[in-house]
Amino acid sequence: MKVQKEKRFALLMAARDSDYVKKMYGGYFNVFVEALGDQGEKWDLFRVVDGQFPDRDDLQNYEGFVISGSPHDAYGDEYWILELCFLLQTLFAMQKKVLGICFGHQVLCRALGGKVGKAYSGWDIGIRKVRFTENFSFYGFLDGSFDEIPPTLSIIECHQDEVCEVPVGAQVLACSDKTGVEMFIFGDNILGIQGHPEYTKDILDNLIDRLLSNNSIEKGFAEEAKLKLMKTEADRKYWEKICKSFLKGRWITLSL
After folding, report:
1. What is the pTM of this model?
2. CA pair distance 143, 140, nearest whole angstrom
3. Which of 110, 119, 183, 186 is nearest to 152 (CA)?
4. What is residue 1's predicted lDDT score, i.e. its pLDDT?
5. Alpha helices, H only, 112-235
6. Which of the ends of the chain has fewer CB neighbours closer than 10 A, N or C?
7. Three-state SS for 173?
8. Which residue intervals define the domain Glutamine amidotransferase in the entry (predicted)?
């Protein structure tokens, strides 16, 4: 009898845990695994923001990688960001599945030849409705449930940077009234999502408080964002399905 090999995934953590997330969830790692993990998988944490990277010889043993959000700029030149870019180029060459979230979406774009920068329209904080482009229709799920995905989905957002131009050969899969590149795919193994599929509303609510306390946003803006947050829900289950289907080989290209 053949024993099925345990599938391994790696979270490349580009932010440090907030006190709130540590208290309520035990850290962002648990938030990601709860959203994207399945029974029988092994998830490893690498705090790349602190210079912790996977061993090069071990990369081949992972099914996929997830890059988290971060308060840092994806276009910055800190040593760990440059090292992360090199790692992402390596994973792309190896054709490993890589999912980038928020900062991860942006740094993936940068590493593979696209352009990122400050958003012309400023901060986007709250629950944003994004529209899938025509390119999205060229993909599907192995279980045939792709048609169940609505043409628009709401997602939690918290960013002031954005993808300005995707790498040559990449396809924009979603956009919004605020951001031109909400989601992109490059080949069969790279997917970037500007929003936060893993966030809960309480995580964002606490993050708004922290941004206000460190003077990153104005009080009026924070109050309005919190009020809107109370009235809207994100389509988390759909986003989780999209992310998990991509990471775990259940996402297929129909035609291009």
Report:
1. 0.94
2. 9
3. 183
4. 44
5. 201-213, 219-231
6. N
7. strand
8. 25-201
